[in-house]
Design a protein that fits this description.
Blueprint: E1 4-6, E2 14-18, H1 23-35, E3 39-43, H2 49-62, E4 70-73, E5 77-80, H3 84-91
Parallel strand pairs: 2-3
Antiparallel strand pairs: 1-3, 2-4, 4-5
Length: 93
């Protein structure tokens, strides 16, 4: 599964599982961009079938319901959905 990288300030490992058509996913990307955070993301619906399976398997480790957006921070903190205050709190150091 290939992640797209967005450059910014290093706030640890920030990975976003998203859908290209999801308004909440777009709001999450916009928030991360506005905060100037470096992050990686994958639009799961844009992947080929084998990559999609790999992405969903990884996503299920964090969010068994496979809902979007799912944001994973430093491989320990998972935020499901667009929760602006929680995201801001989790990434600020």
């Amino acid at each position: 599964m290939k992640l797209k990288q967005v450059s910014g300030e290093d706030q640890g490992k920030v990975v976003l599982f998203a859908l290209s058509t999801c308004g909440w996913c777009k709001k999450t990307k916009r928030l991360l961009n506005d905060l100037g955070v470096e992050y990686s993301y994958v639009d799961v619906d844009q992947l080929k079938e084998d990559e999609k399976t790999e992405a969903v398997d990884e996503l299920k480790k964090w969010n068994p319901k496979c809902s979007f957006p799912t944001l994973v921070i430093d491989d320990e903190n998972c935020i499901v959905g667009f929760k602006e205050d929680e995201i801001k709190e989790a990434i600020k150091k």
